[in-house]
Amino acid sequence: MAQQIQELVASIRKDGIEVAQQEANEIVEAARKEAARVVAEAKKERDSLLLQAEREIATKEASARASLAQASRDVQISLKDALTAQLDRLLVDTVTKALSSKDVVDLITKVVELSGESHTKVLELNKKEFDALAESLKGKLAGDLKNGLEIKPVPSVDGGFKLAEKDGTSFFDFSAPETAALLKPYLSHAIEALIFN
């Protein structure tokens, strides 16, 4: 009987160990499967995060490139505007000098001659040019002055001259700013091509 008890205990022990071993194997296998699932999920999440990060980087790079391109355009426009303003000033200065020379007397004489009835006109110059050109103009326009043409200094004329009707109905403006404005469209394309091409 002792032998049978020993065999029974050994059989129970053997069955218990086998059951425990089987359960342990199942637990280990379940743990491996869970670990593989967790690892696969982590890899999937990692890949998703990497893809999202790459998209965000690409978006930020595209935005940075667009901002840089816009800044470049803004700088070009600012430079063009600054150069245009400087060239406008130079053009007005050049026209002012040209309209302040003694040669302008011939231009004034021609304009008065072509304008028709000089007795209804007044020639307006700024004070500085009036003082510098008065004697020459009196000599060249003597006949027109006798017929009623007036020459007078006017502070509003900024270089050059104006030939106006005495009643104020019309005038020819040959002031430096107006003459420069008339010339500018013919110069700006050439200057723009020279500077920006």
Quick summary:
The protein has helices spanning 2-99, 104-114, 127-140, 142-146, 176-196; strands at residues 121-125, 150-153, 160-165, 171-175. The chain is an alpha+beta fold. Strand 3 and strand 4 (171-175) form a beta hairpin.
Q: What would your notes on this structure say?
A:
Helix 1 crosses helix 5 and helix 2 (104-114) packs across helix 3. The chain is α+β, with helices and mostly antiparallel strands and 197 residues long. 76% of the residues lie in helices and 10% in strands. It contains five helices and four strands. A hairpin with a 5-residue loop joins strand 3 (160-165) and strand 4. It has a four-stranded mixed sheet with strand order 2-1-3-4.
Over all CA atoms, what is the radius of gyration?
49 Å
* Amino-to-carboxy terminus distance: 115 Å
CATH class identity: Alpha Beta
Largest sheet: 4 strands, mixed
- Per the CATH scheme, the topology name is hypothetical protein PF0899 fold
Annotated CATH architecture: 2-Layer Sandwich
Kindly name the structural category.
alpha+beta
Could you give the order of the helices and strands? Answer: HHEHHEEEH
Strand element count: 4
